[in-house]
Amino acid sequence: MPGFVPKLLLLVLLIPVFAAAEEIRCASVPDVVVRSVFHDSVDEVCQAADKALDYLARLKLLQKRTIFIDITEEPIVNQGLHAYGRYDSRSDRIELMSYAAIRRNLPRPMMYGEPFDDVHFTGAIAHEVAHAVMQQNLKTELISPSPQEYLAHATQMAVLPDARRTKILRELAVDPWVSGDAISDVYLGIEPNKFAAKSYQHLTALADPAAFVAILLNAKWFYIYVP
User: Fold this and answer.
1) Could you tell me where the DSSP H helices lie in the chain?
2) pLDDT digits 0-9 by tens, 35-53
3) Helix or strand or coil: residue 89?
4) Residue 67 three-state SS
5) Distance of alpha carbon 220 from alpha carbon 205, whole angstroms
6) How many CA atoms lie within 13 A of 79 on its CB side?
7) Is the pTM for the entire model greater than 0.70?
8) Which residue, 128, 146, 136, is CA-closest to 83?
9) Taking a C-beta distance cutoff of 8 angstroms, is the pair 125, 47 a contact?
């Protein structure tokens, strides 16, 4: 997806030094701790994390330990790819560019085919929180990008305002995954935005979405066949 790097890159341990950064525990979600030099983005990060955790809880996916979010003012780059944020499973921390840093460092930041704005910043935070919570609930040691990104994108889209999400889905113009489809790393790499739209629409159409999330948590291959 634009702005995010594949899971294999997300696993790279690359946490920068934060000079004079202070750890702030979110008032609304005490098990989320934000580390930032500038405090102006902390409330927004906490609110977005709260929205993501609420959505995941409705999928019976619960946070099991503190989530740490490091806010950086520097670009996040892996192998020439810019990322707004990433979850590092080794350190069990999220690294996230501040909204000001994204606007300052990236010439034309985009998300889902739209210019990146504060609404998409909320979505980007929710995306990384979903990665962290999913890691806390995995039933297998290794997991490929597609099941992770399925849930992260579904969460990201879920926290968007209804009108904005509807507009994005209309413009992407894809159907949800259907029975027999392979949710694959290949499609994720080729069409990340459409992958996101198909995943959100599929999950929200299910009678029992939590049951499908349980399948994601047990995924061991580079694809998942839709039942």
Assistant:
1) 7-10, 42-58, 99-105, 118-137, 145-158, 162-172, 185-190, 192-205, 209-217
2) 998 777 899 999 999 999 9
3) coil
4) strand
5) 24
6) 7
7) yes
8) 128
9) no
